Amino acid sequence: MTIDTLTPGVIAQTSAATVSLLPLLARFSLRVGETERAALAKAIGLDLPLKTGARAKAGGVEVLCLGPDEWVLITDDAPRLRDACAGIQRQAPHSLVEISDRELSFLIEGPKAAELLTLGCPRNIDRIADGEGRRTVFDGATVILWRDGANRFRFDVSRSFAPHIVALLETGCAELGAEYSD
């Protein structure tokens, strides 16, 4: 089975964790300099978080700060976002690139979700606060990890690495499920 044939839904489920493929959403990479940031924030309809790992959400747009001048945006209204940013390109030069088809997003949740992520992620998962996110690696693949709650994560990975990552998560979920009983 190839990852492209998977439809959104549960991939692996045990008492320890559940791994699900999420429906596709419009996703953009935004690069903008400090002097143009306020104009972009106004056009998008929310303040761009400035601390790496910080997130903001408003008006159907969620944004994660990946670095000093880099953000990833997820939206349920791609045309509005594209038009708003295009409308201020001359006044506030920036780079907005749609990357919707580049990555797949997974939901990892359950009492051992954080432990499941440690199978391939060298980062201390407990140090990522609820409502934050990080660009990191998982078994050598660059990923974006969103922490939505104590036991709830979203995990964005390049399509080319998705079959490998899914296999690891399925195996890890089964192993943790065999060890864990609530």
From TrEMBL:
<protein>
    <submittedName>
        <fullName>Sarcosine oxidase, gamma subunit</fullName>
    </submittedName>
</protein>
<dbReference type="InterPro" id="IPR027266">
    <property type="entry name" value="TrmE/GcvT-like"/>
</dbReference>
